[in-house]
Amino acid sequence: MPIKIPFAAALLLSCVMAAAPATAQEAPSPLQALQNFGIGAEQIAQLDRGEIVGYDVSETSQKELAIGVAMVLPVPLAQIADYIKKGNMNAIESDILASATLGPNPSSDSFKKFAFTDKQLDEAKAFLAAEAGDEFNLSKAELDRLNSLQAQLEDADDKTLLKTANQTYREFLLQRLLAYKKNGLNGIAAYIRDGGSADPAAELRTDAVNSKAWARYFPELQQAWLTYPAALPANTTEQFIWLNRRVEDRPTAILNHRLISVGDAGGIILSRQFYVGHSYNSSQVVAGGLPYKDGTLVFYSIRSSTDQVAGMGSSLKHSIGREQMKKEMVKRLQRLNKDLKRKPATVAAE
Fold first, then answer.
1. DSSP readout, 16-81?
2. Average of pLDDT values for 159-164?
């Protein structure tokens, strides 16, 4: 049961690093942050030795996988920012097929690089014939649209089928993006399952409410995260990104929204995947960097919701899923560490 880490984790602190911090009650000290994450004295000693440590993140349902990791890099925050601004973090993700930032006036052409290829014709055909279930994450309106196309495509050749699948999927992505930008979490349509549904809006709302380790210091940012598109706190920037990612050896369309706040005292990025084409329902990432002694404390956590870990054997599935997620998260931190420090980073013993 492969569990894929959301793309946002690979964009750890991926922001312009030019904005001032959002309004906060007080900036957390590194030690306060570590305590909030439940990282104790023994793990702090491991961090000081340059080791990567994991920390628990509460899971809110049987469908959710959640975990956090942290490390200390002996380089200033500004150096990490410069590394990321040059696009180096993107190279870590070998399964990204295409991605792009979405501008303020998106159209279906904004997704023109999202496409099923000739080699993915079977996937395109499966999309056009999709029904309620977990093969594709689609709403009732989207399924109705596909059903209405089937009669028109009954005698279509492969070229026409491929073109229609790509254009229709791009229209779905645009509609979902516009609905989210207009209504926030309330604009996210549920995925229709066989005999039920999955509700990514409810999952993401619960994740935002339960993100308490950082929210106590950035209450206005948390409120904006919950009530988007209400006004953002002063000096907070946002980005919308689409990507086509290989998940379970299938192309997967993903829509991602990020809020960013970075300054001299540290930085934080909130990222949510509010649409995912298949395999999992949604995800939220909280990532950050704080000056720590002579370097930077880097941390990030992921909450990812997937129907794959619910039901019979849920406890075992969660254990396996968390371990798989942690391995991928650690690899990203190790790559960041190697590129900036040129020395291997080991994983702390638990």
1. -S-SPPPP-SSPPPHHHHHHHTT--HHHHHHHHTT-BEEE-----STTEEEEEEEEEESS-HHHHH
2. 97
Q: Tell whether the model's pLDDT for residue 147 goes beyond 70.
A: yes
Q: Kindly list the distances between the CA atom of residue 224 and the CA atoms of 22, 205, 306, in Å, as whole numbers in the listed order.
A: 11, 12, 25
**Beta-strand pair 196-198/191-193:** antiparallel
Kindly report the length of the chain. 350
Give the integer Cα–Cα distance in Å for 23 and 219. Answer: 8
- Coil, helix or strand for 304? strand
Convert the pLDDT of each residue in 293-317 to its tens digit.
888 888 888 999 998 888 888 898 8
What's CA 186's distance to the chain center, in Å? Answer: 19
Contacts of 126 (CB under 8 A, 6+ apart): 135, 136
Closest CA to 153 of 124, 128, 135, 120: 128
Give the start-end residues of each E strand in 293-330. 295-305
Q: In the predicted model, what is the mean pLDDT of the chain?
A: 85
Question: pTM score, two decimals?
Answer: 0.87
Residue 209, CA atoms < 13 Å, CB-side half-sphere: 9
**Structure-token match 């002996």, residue found:** 74
Sign of the dihedral through C-alpha 180, 183, 186, 191: negative
Write out pLDDT tens, residues 198-207.
Answer: 999 999 999 9
Q: What is the dihedral of CA 249, 255, 257, 263, to 10 degrees?
A: 40
* Contact present, 174 and 110 (Cβ < 8 Å): yes
Sign, Cα dihedral of 321, 10, 18, 337: positive
